[in-house]
Write a structure and sequence with these properties.
The radius of gyration is 23 Å and the shape is globular. Strands 11, 12, 13, 14, 15, 16, 17 and 18 form an eight-stranded antiparallel β-sheet that branches. It folds into two domains: 7-117, Rieske [2Fe-2S] iron-sulphur domain (Rieske Iron-sulfur Protein, 3-layer Sandwich); 129-339, Naphthalene 1,2-dioxygenase Alpha Subunit, Chain A, domain 1 (Alpha-Beta Complex). Strand 2 and strand 3 form a beta hairpin. The protein has five helices and 18 strands. By secondary structure, the protein is α+β, with helices and mostly antiparallel strands. Helices cover 22% and strands 32% of the residues. The two termini are 23 Å apart. Bound molecules: FE2/S2 (inorganic) cluster and fe (ii) ion. Fe (ii) ion (FE2) binds at residues 154, 160, 164-165, 301. Fe (ii) ion binds at residues 154, 160, 164-165, 301.
């Protein structure tokens, strides 16, 4: 089960060209295509004889089914049936609310009346000229054979950096400093912060910051539930202050990683991410480092998450234990469960009164 009344990223805007794009979102097959007004997202199943509309083609501002040529506009209405003058009643497919923001196409699979654009988090740095953004995987999602909350777990428990990413962003010192968990029940937000003082810089930060000695380091991840995860990380000269959002080159380096794991099914995810940095923003060399080295870092995570999912699917009732570092993840999962339960209660209340 998923939280339905939420925006999820369905695609990078640049993925949608002249051809229909098919993608399963929260177990629902969706086809997206460009119209003169923007982007449309429809149920990917023709209401005539069920052919996926994504197997057809875009004709003007409509999508034409590839079997018998029925045409649908961006609202999902069938507007043409070849060979007959009338469109039969009920000839329509479901249309999803969509909007474009930060270079992504966001889709709403819940109650359309609740599709408020203000639910999308304010990630201002993605539009700031003082930050440089590099889309992950050249503007395509990573396909992950794992549940989307395993991505959330991964980003909140950064003790894994020491073991999974030892050659780049890992450092033994991370596990010496305990994480702090904060949560905001009304806003549906959880934050994990880990601050590391006076330790050698990890290889990636040393290359970026050219530090003379030890550094103070931080990694903080905030999740606006169900799954908008913004990580802020950096390293500064010892004692100069951990002040996310305000680190200039005289003290160190700071970056953010935006993570949007959209459920495909219960056990697979379209993982959209991008990197923003607040240092060397004009440097093509650093653009390339993010394109290549961070792709390798994400591949390291992919292997771990998919390994977990395999065993979890094989042994769904097996016992798991918790450790201290799981505190933020436990909060995230509890709050997501509560959001789902609240939606279900509302739906069953509505059914009873209908
Ligand atoms: S199945 Fe789509 S037009 Fe017949
Ligand atoms: Fe990782």
């Amino acid at each position: 089960m998923f939280v339905r009344n939420a925006w999820y990223v369905a695609a990078w805007e640049t993925e949608i060209g002249n051809a229909p794009l098919a993608r399963t979102i929260l177990n629902e097959p969706v086809v997206m295509f460009r119209t003169p007004d923007g982007i449309a997202a429809l149920e990917d199943r023709c209401c005539h004889r069920a052919l996926p509309l994504s197997m057809g083609k875009v004709v003007g501002d409509k999508i034409q089914c590839g079997y018998h040529g029925l045409e649908f506009d961006g609202s999902g209405a069938c507007v043409r049936v070849p060979g007959q003058s009338k469109v039969p009643p009920g000839a329509e497919v479901r249309a999803y609310p969509v909007l474009q923001k930060y270079g992504w196409v966001w889709i709403w699979t819940g109650d359309p009346a609740k599709a408020d654009p203000n639910h999308i988090p304010d990630w201002w740095w993605l539009e700031s000229p003082e930050w440089k953004t590099i889309p992950g995987r050249d503007g395509t999602p990573m396909h992950l054979e794992a549940n989307y909350l395993l991505v959330s777990d991964n980003l909140f428990d950064i003790s894994h950096l020491t073991y999974v990413h030892a050659s780049s962003i890992g450092a033994d010192s991370i596990v010496e400093f305990a994480p702090k968990t904060e949560r905001w029940e009304d806003e549906k937000r959880v934050k994990m912060s880990r601050e590391i003082f006076d330790r050698p810089a990890a290889p990636f930060y040393q290359k970026a910051g050219q530090f003379r000695g030890n550094v103070d380091r931080w990694i903080m991840t905030t999740s606006d539930l169900p799954c908008y995860l913004a990580s802020d990380a950096g390293s500064v000269e010892v004692g100069t202050g951990i002040t996310p959002g305000e680190v200039g080159p005289e003290r160190g380096v700071e970056m953010k990683i935006m993570n949007l794991p959209t459920p495909e099914t219960e056990t697979s995810t379209h993982y959209f991410y991008s990197h923003c940095r607040h240092f060397h923003i004009e440097s093509e060399e650093w653009d390339e480092i993010y394109r290549t080295q961070f792709t390798a870092v994400f591949e390291e995570d992919k292997a771990v998450l998919e390994g977990q999912q395999r065993r979890m699917s094989e042994f769904p009732d097996a016992r798991e234990i918790d450790i201290n570092a799981d505190a933020p993840n436990i909060q995230v999962r509890r709050m997501v469960d509560e959001m789902i339960a609240a939606e279900q209660a509302e739906l069953s209340g509505a059914r009873k009164s209908a």
